[in-house]
């Protein structure tokens, strides 16, 4: 059975800030959680359309979810980039200091 259009829109918005490599896996997990919420709503004698609407409403804003997912999945990447940048900057500073500390040809003459 095909997922309802509001669900597809919700899922697309929720994963839009994630790196492409993990977007599909996170989307599938989020879809499974929403499907379970829909099934829980069906136990209250709701039809499927209304149950999906309840599941999406209870999940909150897809934009808020997108920001939180991005924070979880990209913070580690951001920290790694920062640390590599700091290491390369420190290495460049050390090399620059060595170049300026070496005596020039004129300074070596008596």
Molecular structure report:
This protein has 110 residues and is mainly α. Helices cover 81% and strands 0% of the residues. The chain is built from five helices and no strands. α1 runs parallel beside α4 and α2 packs across α3. The longest helix is centred in the last third of the chain and has 40 residues. The mean pLDDT is 83.
User: Which spans have pLDDT < 50 for at least 5 consecutive residues?
Assistant: none
Q: Could you tell me the strand content as a percent range?
A: under 5%
What is the residue-mean pLDDT, rounded to a whole number? 83
Counted beta strands: 0
Q: Count of helical segments?
A: 5
Subunit organisation of the chains: single chain
N- and C-termini, Cα separation: 89 Å
Helix content: over 70%
Q: Tell me, briefly, the overall form.
A: rod-shaped
Quick one: biggest sheet? none
What's the alpha carbon Rg, rounded to whole Å? Answer: 26 Å
- Give the structural class: mainly alpha
* N to C succession of SSEs: HHHHH
């Amino acid at each position: 059975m095909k997922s309802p259009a509001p669900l597809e829109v919700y899922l697309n918005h929720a994963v839009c800030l994630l790196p492409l490599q993990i977007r599909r896996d996170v989307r599938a997990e989020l879809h499974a959680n929403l499907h379970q919420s829909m099934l829980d709503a069906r136990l209250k004698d709701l039809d499927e359309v209304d149950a999906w609407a309840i599941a999406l409403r209870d999940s909150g804003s897809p934009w808020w979810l997108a920001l939180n997912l991005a924070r979880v999945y990209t913070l580690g990447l951001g920290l790694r980039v920062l640390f590599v940048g700091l290491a390369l900057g420190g290495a460049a500073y050390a090399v620059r200091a060595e170049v300026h500390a070496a005596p020039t040809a004129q300074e070596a003459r008596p």
